[in-house]
């Protein structure tokens, strides 16, 4: 008995160390639907946590925990940078989105989200769709990014893709003195909800794209699209995307893809994409900088979806969403210039701006601290 107590104490210390930068981590387990999910709330200084929920066949729980901790931290920074009064949170569901989904699983997930009583709002991310969250929204109001006919603000990948295009224009302006997207070559990794939309827009303006995706369906879809744009689409094998001759690399799939191995291979002048947590470690921002590759911090470029879902919670206004998404252009340019001025990486320049906003708000929160209702009046 004594030995058992000691063992669990050791495990508790490890997990608390692991989540020490986070406010709350919730493990959701529903054997009847097969749901195994983790919700992480990183920081609610700016408001209740907001962030999509990803579904992915993680190899083990540690991998899923690592992902949700990094993703939720990224959301704190994304909200701070985009001037959004929400905090950082994210959910991950362990499972294969192709084979493990069911309406019941997402309803069960909705119940867990509901149990947080407004501390966490969520919607789509990689591996999940609006339909999944229509199911979840049968159990809770704390869902966003569902179709307008179900009372939501619609597909959040639309403004995310728009934000990527503004990021690309700002990058071209900085690098070439001209924001035009046409006539250049872009390497796109991942043709899902965001990547495919970016690819379509680039083709429409006369750009050449080199693409890859793990999914046969996605490759078939882009090959069909390519018939309207002869000679403008090249499909490559998964790992070849890192070494193609392109002007800009656009990661729109998994995180961690900017690492020692891939940075060595890159021939592009810049990296501007939607994928969350593109840098395997923060020091890879310096590796890119040293190689002369301009890196547009992911959480600035991909804020379009967040801007829309946050706006939906304030009372949706499409013109406001467009205006705030457009501001990504100026944010990216300002970060490039700050990085040059202070001889720091673009990541450092972006992080400084966010930390400043969080510190300012923390000060204000202390000043306006609300009294908590005592228990006896609460149940009156
Ligand atoms: N949907 C949104 O509004 C937002 C998405 N993001 C991020 O952008 C990225 C893409 O998101 P979505 O398009 O929504 O996801 P999605 O699930 O619709 O698309 C991802 C695509 O990447 C492909 N893929 C997966 N692993 C790959 C690999 N190793 N190599 C090449 N392709 C691979 C998938 O087959 C799929 O087609 C994710 O990192 C997500 O977190 C960030 C902000 C908002
Ligand atoms: O895009 C969304 O639906 C919510 C925001 C989010 O999760 C993200 O920006 O990664």
Tell me about this structure:
The chain is α/β, with parallel strands linked by helices. The chain is 48% helix and 14% strand. The protein contains 14 helices and twelve strands. The strands form two sheets. Strands 1, 2, 3, 4, 5 and 6 form a six-stranded mixed β-sheet that branches. It has a six-stranded parallel β-sheet with strand order 9-8-7-10-11-12, with helices on both faces. Helix 8 links the parallel strand 10 and strand 11. The model has no long low-confidence stretch (mean pLDDT 93). It comes from Ornithinibacillus hominis.
Strand content: 5-15%
Cα-to-Cα separation, first versus last residue: 43 Å
User: So how many helices?
Assistant: 14
Bound molecules: 1,4-dihydronicotinamide adenine dinucleotide, 2-oxoglutaric acid
Please, what is the average pLDDT?
93
Instruction: Give the low-pLDDT segments.
Output: none
**What helical percentage do the residues reach?**
40-55%
So what's the overall shape? globular
Major sheet attributes: 6 strands, mixed
Short description:
With 380 residues, this protein is an alpha/beta fold.
Features:
about 375 residues, binds 2-oxoglutaric acid, single chain, 12 strands, about 50% helix, six-stranded parallel β-sheet, six-stranded mixed β-sheet, alpha/beta, 14 helices, binds 1,4-dihydronicotinamide adenine dinucleotide, globular
